[in-house]
Amino acid sequence: MPNSEYDNAHFFEEYAKMFRSQQGLPGAGEWRQFQQLFPDLQGKSVLDLGCGYGWHCKYAAQQGASRVLGIDLSQRMLAEARRRNADPKVEYRLCGMEEYEYPADTWDCVISNLSLHYVADIDRVFANVAKTLKPGGIFLLNIEHPCFTAGVHQDWVYGSDGKPLYWPIDDYFLPGERSTVFLGCEVPKQHHTLTQILMGLIHHGFELQAVEEAQPSPDMLDIPGMKDELRRPMMLLVRAKRRE
Question: What span, in angstroms and rounded, lies between the C-alpha atoms of 64 and 129?
Fold first, then answer.
């Protein structure tokens, strides 16, 4: 099983300082939109790929899910999930999404929030999710937007006054690993084009029910840096249904 950047002590310490880490789902700029994509979870089984702190697992349990499994590659993340978001209906397991067994026709809903841009073979994940969902099951994914992952070092070009001038994009049609600086650490991520993501889902038997680009809600625009999130998309939200 590969290592997770989130088990790096310094990186994890910096991640814990983020507004979304401290506030949970209400502190995530995309939550207002992502929440609207969730199906009715009453009595349903839910798999969370890359569950992190477990916010979505706990939310699923609160919405009446009968069984929730959150898997993550990071032991530190799972320790926080068990501390912050424990629930009798939620199981947390140390496992990468590429190593998970994906039993056939098992889950009513699969969630992947901000984790697929760490996976090189996204097509394989789509195939596995299609296999493990029950017919008619829902796949909810939030992935870093291709305009963001194609950004040069995933950062702005700054003026002499330190203010961001524009967001540079290069090598858009060359998918693969990109070296980025995130929270003061070098973090490898994977760039996937919009065609790869959306057509990949379609090719694996999914019906696209919603495609949205995340924007922070108006009441969050006073948070430092949030207004700049209106200048380029950072996240792509998709609701896809496995065809029956």
Answer: 22
> CA of 229: how far to CAs of 102, 141, 145, 214, 218, in Å?
35, 19, 12, 9, 12
Q: How far apart are CA 72 and CA 76, in angstroms?
A: 10
The predicted structure's pLDDT at residue 6: 72
Read off the tokens for 169: 């994009």
Amino acid at site 59: Y
Look at residue 147 and tell me whether its pLDDT is greater than 80.
Answer: yes
Q: State the residue for tokens 């984790």.
A: 115
Q: Which two tokens stand for residue 122?
A: 């996204």
- How many of the other CB atoms lie within 10 Å of CB of 183? 16
**3-state SS record for 37-96:** CCCCCCCCEEEEECCCCCHHHHHHHHCCCCEEEEEECCHHHHHHHHHHCCCCCEEEEECC
What's the rounded mean pLDDT across residues 217-242?
A: 90
Spatial separation of the C-alpha atoms in residues 61 and 64, rounded to whole Å: 5
Percent of the chain with pLDDT over 70: 94
pLDDT at 222: 84
Confidence of residue 92 (pLDDT cuts 50, 70, 90): very high
78: exposed, middle or buried (C-beta count within 10 Å: 0-12, 13-18, 19+)?
buried
Q: What is the pLDDT of residue 2?
A: 55
H-run or E-run covering 92? strand 90-94
Print burial letters for 90-104: b (CB count within 10 Å at least 16), e (below 16): bebeebbbbebebee
Angle at Cα 58 formed by Cα 55 and Cα 64, nearest 5°? 140
